[in-house]
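User: Is it possible to get a 3D structure for a protein together with its bound compound? The compound here is adenosine-5'-triphosphate. I've pasted both below.
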Amino acid sequence: MSSSSHGSAVSAGSVLSVDGVSRWFANVVAVNDVSMSIGPGITGLLGPNGAGKSTVINMLAGFLPPSTGTVTLDGAAIWKNPDVYRTIGLVPEREAAYDFLTGWQFVLANAELHGLGDAGAAARRALATVEMEYAEERKIGEYSKGMRQRVKMASALVHEPAVLLLDEPFNGMDPRQRLHLMDLLRRMGAAGRTVLFSSHILEEVEQLAQQIEVMVAGRHAASGDFREIRRLMTDRPHQYLIRSADNRALASALIADGSTAGVQMDGDAEALRVQAVEFRRFTELLPRVANEAGIRLYEVSPSDESLESVFSYLVTS
Ligand SMILES: Nc1ncnc2c1ncn2[C@@H]1O[C@H](COP(=O)(O)OP(=O)(O)OP(=O)(O)O)[C@@H](O)[C@H]1O
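Assistant: Yes, that's possible. Here is the predicted structure of the complex:
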């Protein structure tokens, strides 16, 4: 189905605003003074597990009130505002336990819950959008992970919302299902919808999102397009583990050059741990210094490349 077939019901240009929002559960601060604005097109909410992504999405969907601050859609408070709910669709992370229903029954029930005039037509349209008509008579319990995701998506789309929120939608999907969903979300974004999806996988977000919001440990760590986020990540200091024919000589040559922030010897000079000041400069510097000193490099591997270390760099910088 082409995106233009949804066009009429989409009030293009919806903007979600999170202003000075914190949310705590007993003594756990899940979201800590976060402000962000999410406009039309596709935005990725990136962060490691426990960063507070689901909590933000649940507040944006009207499932959870903020403890302090405001969450609004086009200026209207979202919490306890049924008018706003009518323009928001949520694809939750958790699997709803409706395995005994067929895809058709599940999507139709959602259309009826929304009180849509012609619930049958709305359910048919939503199932066609996610290309699930072929399996609509089968029970959800028999669906693959990707099919479940699509049927959840259809039920979030029955009322043709201007805003679509998806919590970790690519979790557990195979590459083909992932491409299919990406294509679908791109069409939603191109039709003027405000699409926000969460993920802890940078590559996923890079491929799809024009705008990226990064969260770490409840805080808003960075915001921008993927080039800006990439730049923040590659400009940060990097640690490398290096083995060479003469680690001591290489250490002195690197220290003499002054472009490294620190050089440490591991064990009995079996390896070097080098703190590079800047990624690009270091990748040019290291082979040059080694070459000039006549030292053969055996191994150069990044030692702090985990996503968490990248995120914590962003959050402390
Ligand atoms: N209902 C709740 N009761 C108590 N603590 C909660 C609740 N919801 C979330 N938290 C806590 O808030 C923090 C943020 O959780 P949240 O689920 O929002 O993170 P997330 O980024 O979505 O992570 P994940 O990808 O693992 O779901 C975590 O420490 C979590 O344990």
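The two ends are 45 Å apart (CA to CA). The chain has two domains: 4-233, 237-316.
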